[in-house]
Amino acid sequence: MSKIIDGNALANTIHAETAELVKILKMQKIVPKLAVFLVGKNPASASYVEKKKKWAEYIGMNCEVYKFPETITTKKLVEEIKKIQQTKKPHGCIVQLPLPVHIDRQEVLNTILPKRDVDCLTEINLGKLATGRTIFYPPTVSAILHILEEEKVNLKEKHVVIVGAGILVGKPLTSVLLYKEATVTICNKYTKNLKKQTKYADILVTAVGQKDLIRKDMIKRNAIVIDVGVSFKGKKMYGDAEFAKVMKKAKSITPTPGGVGPLTVAFLLRNTVIAASTKE
Q1: Are 213 and 163 in contact (CB under 8 A)?
Q2: Which of 46, 102, 190, 193 is spaced 20 to 30 A from 17 at the CA atom?
Q3: Residues 9-63: pLDDT tens digits?
Q4: CA 103/CA 189 separation, integer angstroms
Q5: Beta strands 62-68 and 159-163: pairing type?
């Protein structure tokens, strides 16, 4: 039976540490402020934003959510984000994804000033990841690295297989792991015989959003499985791994919910505090 990695417990420790940093900044009359841009009424997105706001306020930060209609144009959204950055001067800004399909996602993301890009999704910050020059990593990447650190993994000796080549996890995580000299294989929707790839993984990271995509016969014994995928069946949340069966073969595994998600929120807020601590 594998170890179930408690993301909530790990996140609570990070929150406590960040709260102490917030206290220090407040002594300097700096109150870290996060701006969240939410487009449309996606229930999952609204739920995620509410969790971010709740935890931000819990550790003493300010968090302002700016809501825009589903029908907003790329041009108008860009204008609004620029205006808010200029007038409200938040220390950190994020665009809650996904955006409606008619909006140019990267154009909107690039509107965030790199020093305020606490999701690390602007082209400038993504480009810096490969050389380790960013002042912070994308929150989910930090969450995954923290889990591996807690599991006492030496990345230079491990083969990491990433399933899912998206902008939030797959692409940035690959850049960071290559910089840290891990052996990395990344799989996308065109990868043939996915099982053949995943069976080689010492560490398997899956971030697709497809229930039961990763089965017990697709992992090698004692692999570490980090499940970032999120999908819903009714109101119940699932990861990518067939959890009950995979956990019998894995060395350790993150659950969904309660795994990577809480840590991602914790590191998003940590990034905002780092941004608030950095001179303009």
Answers
A1: yes
A2: 46
A3: 999 999 999 999 999 999 999 999 999 999 998 888 888 999 999 999 999 999 9
A4: 23
A5: unpaired
Question: For the domain that residue 185 is a member of, what is the CATH number?
Answer: 3.40.50.720
Q: How far is CA 44 from the centre of its chain?
A: 15
- Cα(82)–Cα(103) distance, integer angstroms: 16
For residue 277, is it within any domain? no
For the chain, strand residue ranges (E) read: 3-4, 33-39, 62-68, 92-95, 159-163, 183-187, 203-206, 224-227, 231-233, 236-238, 252-253
> Can you give the residue range of the structural domain that contains 164?
139-260
Asked if 55 and 96 sit in the same domain, the reply is yes
What number of CA atoms fall less than 13 Å from residue 74's CA on the CB side? 11
Question: Does some domain include residue 124?
Answer: no
190 with 235, same domain? yes
Active site residues: 52, 96, 119
CATH number for the domain spanning 65: value is 3.40.50.10860
- Cα dist. 162→53, 85, 139, 148, 183 in Å? 30, 35, 17, 14, 11
Q: State the pTM of this model.
A: 0.95
Q: What CA dihedral angle connects 234, 240, 245 and 251, to 10 degrees? A: -140
Look up residue 44 and give its amino acid. A
Measured CA to CA, the distance from residue 126 to residue 124 in angstroms comes to: 6
- Beta strands 183-187; 159-163: pairing state: parallel
Residue 267 lies in a domain: no
- 1 within some domain: no
147: nearest Cα among 52, 199, 225 = 225
Same domain, 61 and 162: no
Q: How many domains does the chain have?
A: 2
